[in-house]
Amino acid sequence: MKRLDSSELRALCIRNNWFTCGDIRQYTRFFQRNSEGATTEELSVIIWICSDEVPYNDIYTALCKAMDAMPKEEKQMICPGFRFLNEGEEYTVVLFYETGKSNVALLITPNPVCPFVTVRDISKLHNGNYEWVWGHYFQSFDEAFEDFNERNDYLRNN
Question: What is the DSSP string of 37-104?
Fold first, then answer.
């Protein structure tokens, strides 16, 4: 897989009219994550969050093509961009990391009170709903993102 440098990634965003809703701090963090070796999926999610009405799969496919990477097969599994209903509440997975035993996810929901949620050990139940061991709810994406990263680091190192 070919890594894109910041100027190539910037040109791709401009050419595709991506990242039209992100602020300078988010844009800076986006390039920081790229230089730190973020996966194609993570870069796609960041672009998707900070873009207006661009489907995640379109971004992911274009990034894979630009990076000479093979897109992962689309499956009904928990991964960035996956959407689900849970007891009438709509959620979208923004970031997801899993080991063989545990996982942590950052979710977005249209709930105006707390639209961002970090959850641990999300899984699908037989009735089609999802459950998680615990969830932390946030009004700020930045706070939720920081919480996800802390919990992700803990999961990776333990």
Answer: T--HHHHHHHHHHTSSS--HHHHHHHHHHHTT-PPPPP-SSS-TT-EEEETTEEEEEEEEEE-SS-EE
Q: Beta strands 89-98 and 130-131: pairing type?
A: unpaired
CA distance 65 to 36: 20
Neighbours of 21 (CB within 10 A): 12
Of 114, 156, 154, residue with least CA distance to 135? 114
119-156 burial by CB neighbour count: b if 16+ within 10 A, else e? bbebeeeeeeebebeeebebeebeebbebbeebbeebe
Distance, in Å, from the CA atom of 70 to the CA atom of 8, rounded to the nearest integer, reads 19
Eight-class DSSP state of 4: P
Question: Which residues, other chains included, contact 158 with Cβ-Cβ below 8 Å and sequence gap of 6+?
Answer: none
pTM exceeding the 0.90 threshold for the entire prediction: no
Q: pLDDT tens digit string along 78-118?
A: 888 888 888 888 999 999 998 878 899 999 999 889 999 99
